[in-house]
Amino acid sequence: MKLLDDLQQQLGQLQVQSLQRRRRTADSPCAPRVVVDGRDMLAFCSNDYLGLAAHPQVVEALREGASLYGAGSGASHLVSGHGRAHAQLEERLAEFLAPHLEQARALYFCTGYMANLALLGALGGADAMIFSEGMNHASLIDGCRLARAQVQVYPHGDIDALEKMLIASTAATKLVVTDSVFSMDGDIAPLPQLLALCERHDAWLVIDDAHGFGVLGEHGRGALEHFGLRSPNLVYMGTLGKAAGVGGAFVAAHETVIEWLVQRSRPYIYTTAAAPALAHALLTSLDLIAGTEGHARRAHLQALIGQLDATLTLQRWQRLPSITAIQPVVIGANQESLDAAAALHEQGLWVPAIRPPTVPRDTARLRVTLSASHTVEQVAQLARALNALEARTA
Ligand code: PMP
């Protein structure tokens, strides 16, 4: 069969280039200590930044949501799948973000990937121009592909280049689209400058705060709170499967933008609504994020980030400047990164190697992610292991 032969040949090439990916199977809840492929490991790879994925109150709320609303929604939102829990979650999210958005309304999606497709597909019509940051997440890139708008990519963090593009554009609708916290580097986009540019040039600023919502800001309101942003030009996307510990995502913006998405975004309209029990559990996640427990968890996470920074003494492997929970160690070659991840695995540490195309060529890396559920001793163990491993492979 030619088709299968072709695929097998391409899969073989991935293996030769050390680009083949493999999944590991976890047998325990998402937590620092996990059982993976039958082995007890210390994990530094989840995006469960606040440790809510296995939080007893969130798990109990999920159970309660299932008994109240059943296992599935049964239909798409515009048919009959929109439940009370979805509606409550959207109201709570809009209230939570109201300090940063004008006439805020929120819309819950099954995943962040779909929210980005929905958003860019619906706002990026044929008369629009999308200005997309060079290091954006794959879901934003795919959203640009789905949109009928023209797309220009501006270099990572380059405000001047973006301004020139905005000045040159005569498009009726302009959308500047960026991750807030870049998922593979951990750095933060210069959002205040980007917003000022957008306001000056009558453009929307679309922020994907997948890695900021719940983590950044005094109350966990993410990048908007971290920078104290407020503007009618903002369209905000936050995910709920990372710091919020459950799943799904939302877009929050002016109510007119949200109504447009309800009417026009295909990834919202033509899919079965997420289980209402998830939305019900997320109400508890939001309480935790906004309350004293969330505050304490964010403070602990910040302390762990500082601890890792102070105790890693890497020379050859490159640390990237990151004040977030994403702490990459760039090794360069694909195979060397895989070897490093394998050596850590031998010692019972689970740190994923990330390779192209997820990151640019020759920047394969260990992507360390920290969580508020890690202990000081666990982070110390990671730092010791990384320092020793680099010295050993020199
Ligand atoms: N945006 C960014 C920046 C992400 O890192 C991710 C997930 N890795 C997504 C969007 C997609 O979110 P979800 O996992 O909910 O589909």
UniProtKB/TrEMBL annotation:
Pathway membership: Cofactor biosynthesis; biotin biosynthesis
Keywords associated with the record: Acyltransferase, Biotin biosynthesis, Pyridoxal phosphate, Transferase
Signal peptide: none
Residues where pyridoxal 5'-phosphate binds: G112, Y113, S183, H211, T239
Residues given in the record as substrate binding sites: R21, H137, T358
Cofactor(s), by name: pyridoxal 5'-phosphate
Residue ranges of every copy of the Aminotransferase class I/classII large domain listed in the record: 40-386
HAMAP family: BioF_aminotrans_2
Entry function: Catalyzes the decarboxylative condensation of pimeloyl-[acyl-carrier protein] and L-alanine to produce 8-amino-7-oxononanoate (AON), [acyl-carrier protein], and carbon dioxide.
Family affiliation: Belongs to the class-II pyridoxal-phosphate-dependent aminotransferase family. BioF subfamily.
Gene Ontology MF terms in the entry: 8-amino-7-oxononanoate synthase activity; pyridoxal phosphate binding
Matches recorded under InterPro entries: Aminotransferase_I/II_large (IPR004839), AON_synthase_class-II (IPR050087), AONS_Archaea/Proteobacteria (IPR004723), AONS_Proteobacteria (IPR022834), PyrdxlP-dep_Trfase (IPR015424), PyrdxlP-dep_Trfase_major (IPR015421), PyrdxlP-dep_Trfase_small (IPR015422)
Protein name as catalogued: 8-amino-7-oxononanoate synthase
Catalytic reaction list: 6-carboxyhexanoyl-[ACP] + L-alanine + H(+) = (8S)-8-amino-7-oxononanoate + holo-[ACP] + CO2
E.C. designation(s): 2.3.1.47
Self-association state and partner proteins as the record states: Homodimer.
List of residues that carry N6-(pyridoxal phosphate)lysine: K242
GO BP: biotin biosynthetic process
